[in-house]
Specification:
Strand content of chain A: 25-35%
Number of domains of chain A: 3
CATH topology of the largest domain in chain A: Dihydrodipicolinate Reductase, domain 2
Distance between the termini of chain A: 58 Å
Oligomer: homodimer
CATH architecture of the largest domain in chain A: 2-Layer Sandwich
Largest interface: A-B, 64 and 63 residues
């Protein structure tokens, strides 16, 4: 009996697109050996001829017109890898309306328009697959959908941005300033020439929205994520953190609280014995806290052409299985509930605070009063180093509501002996 | 439109079986909310009436006869949780022949008869699901089957036995002997009253066979796994290991080598910076090395009623989706190749060796000659502690073929000044 063939096309032949083509060329036979059908790459579209030529495919498989894939009746599955919102969103919508399954790695689009497109897919009895949009090669979307379907997830903690994790790792290991570590990351290809999206936390926030919806089954909005980048973190902070048993990571944190979802991205002190603390360099990990399984972690490369291509091709195979099996609900997309949001001010955290202060009588009393007024109690005080005439002070608070801490902080920074711009970093609790 | 219901039955109401019933009672509605069909628990069988009563289900759902489930035409999916080889194997075979999908957590049976049962399932166009057989709640089987289908895995490293990991963790943290740590584990329910299967490495070996077949797509045999338990590891070894930057773990190691599969379970020194080093207490993790994704790790609770129940119910949902979609190849079981096996003697490792020696002239020369004869070169020598009149010596070799090391070791132990029964532990390379 000859095996049926499911045909897929690829729109966007950049780094990841080329990775998909390369991995398919290398392992396509291996994949098909294990299936009772074949998958076959029919066509690749990119506006840039040079990119197409670099794929080293026969000319008949190359096109500069995405419509040759999106509107092609011979193609069953479309991979979208052009990135950004438009024309990616319109292309995906058109492919779904044409009855094609779609595979994407587009995190900003999934964070902003994912639900509309998933609804559109359902209307057209096809599926939208996006395993590669969070965590690169790390199996994450499928485990969240399938393996944890019987569990209730309460919190998701992610190191989901490789650039910032690389920067923090090398600040700590090589005693570097943030600027030096960033330059080094750029030189080695772990940071883009314009690193804004990574360094300011936007990339992590997109991924958080996607994960939170899957984990909690509730609607999350990008605009409701509190986002703080890594620019405020210095080598001195990393060094003090280590001294008190912590490392610093940029965390994407999603919590399903009684009042609604609390979503935030910010640098955090992570206890050295927490599994997330040993996630180094450009690697990513997502830690999940739940009712029945209690704790799970998924770890691996969050980016890179080849790792991301493994996730994309696994989605192509799942889409092909849906076609073979005539199943429209192959991906078990949860029906999202509307829910409230908990603003950052209403969440609780412990805080690390480092500042320089003129060493004169009465300063500590003013400081203590500012905290006492807002009922912020201190867990730790370190003063052991001088910078010129100034004393360096590190404080760690007990758990306190964010807005109370911020009020106390305003009062503290008004004390004339305390120099402006203290370092303020939350602790993972 | 009313939703169709897929009915499942459960054979075996022990700890895990009760966990499945409890989790279904708690979260069944949540599961069904996210599906376009319902799953429904129809019947539970156990020979022990007391266990059945403890489930707190209506009497009509309870039976002491497994046939009421296996041969029941109303039941679509059978969960087997009686454990052991027989009658579990026969029950599963009969259920498959009756056209039912089967879900099992039975690792020893899957390691010994899994392939035959998977073939039998295929013949009957149904599937056998076994996510819970390795790593409890950790998504592992499904990621290996689906997410990594486009990748080539070269090595699997697992901490897959919670009892031994708990013992090693507490020997290290609380400075305990192995016996004391084992008693503590038994007291807290992390070790069984007869811990043989765990402590001697059999449990880990069963799981290794299951993982190796999935990871490499090649046939693995339980009898070809080299198995060494944890009894030879002392507190002193753990302490020395830490001093040189390692921790000790019981590892299940599978490698896909040009000459065939190399499968082994033994204690190993794991570098402290390796992600597996921070897997503590009863937790499990599986670390995967592959061509495209490079490195992935899956971490979580490897046992326990509730965690294991999440894996079982996720399998029930996948089985139900197969029934709904009329798909027989829902699980993408790889067609296993026959392959050779690499015996432990032909593998390479670095070795840690600790022994007591009479402190007299010429001993080190004899020792050095024994190693030199077999071309075993040393990376590290520590001698700093005396035990009575004897000196304690710790050596670490460079990478060497196992059989050459064993020959050298025989010669070393023949030296009269060296006391018998040295500690010998491989390093993870």
């Amino acid at each position: 009996m000859s095996k049926k063939t499911v045909k897929f096309g690829l729109v966007g032949a950049g780094t990841i697109g080329k990775g998909v083509v390369d991995l398919y060329k290398r392992n396509g036979n291996l994949i098909n050996k294990n299936l009772d059908f074949n998958i076959s790459l029919e066509k690749v579209a990119d506006r840039d001829q040079e990119r197409l030529q670099a794929l080293d495919l026969e000319a008949a498989k190359l096109t500069t017109d995405a419509a040759d894939i999106i509107d092609n009746p011979d193609i069953d599955i479309v991979i979208e890898l052009i990135g950004g919102i438009e024309p990616a969103r319109s292309f995906i919508a058109r492919a779904l309306e044409n009855g094609k399954h779609v595979v994407t790695a587009n995190k900003d689009m999934m964070a902003r328009h994912g639900q509309d497109l998933i609804d559109l897919a359902r209307e057209n009895t096809v599926n939208l697959f996006y395993e590669a949009s969070v965590g690169g090669a790390i199996p994450l979307i499928r485990p969240l959908k399938h393996n944890l379907i019987a569990d209730r997830i309460s919190r998701v903690l992610g190191i989901v941005n490789g650039t910032t994790n690389y920067i923090f790792t090398h600040m700590a290991q090589d005693n570097l300033s943030l600027d030096k570590a960033l330059s080094e990351a750029q030189r080695l290809g772990f940071a883009e020439s314009d690193p804004t999206n990574d360094v300011e936390g936007l990339d992590a926030a997109y991924k958080l929205v996607i994960m939170a919806q899957l984990a909690f089954g509730k609607k999350a909005e990008f605009d409701q994520v509190y986002i703080e980048g890594i620019n405020g973190v210095t080598y001195e902070d990393i060094s003090y953190a280590r001294e008190i048993g912590y490392t610093i990571k940029l965390l994407a944190i999603g919590e399903d609280l009684p009042e609604g979802l609390a979503l935030r991205v910010h640098p955090a002190l992570v206890p050295l014995e927490h599994p997330l603390a040993s996630v180094l360099n450009e690697l990513n990990a997502v830690f999940i806290e739940s009712e029945a399984a209690k704790e799970l972690m998924f770890y691996g490369p969050g980016a890179g052409a080849m790792p991301t291509a493994t996730a994309i091709l696994s989605d192509v195979v799942e889409a092909a299985r849906c076609i073979q099996g005539n199943i429209s609900n192959g991906v078990v997309e949860k029906k999202l509930e509307e829910t409230g949001f908990v603003p950052i001010g209403a969440t609780e955290a412990r805080f690390y605070l480092r500042f320089l202060v003129e060493d004169r009588a009465g300063v500590f009393a003013s400081l203590a009063n500012a905290f006492a007024d807002e009922r912020v109690s201190l867990d730790m005080i370190i003063q052991k180093r001088s910078v010129g005439d100034l004393a360096e002070v590190v404080l760690v608070t007990h758990a306190v509501k964010e807005e109370a801490f911020q009020r106390a902080l305003s009062k503290v920074t008004e004390i004339s002996a305390i120099k402006p711009d203290p370092s303020v970093i939350r602790l993972l609790n």
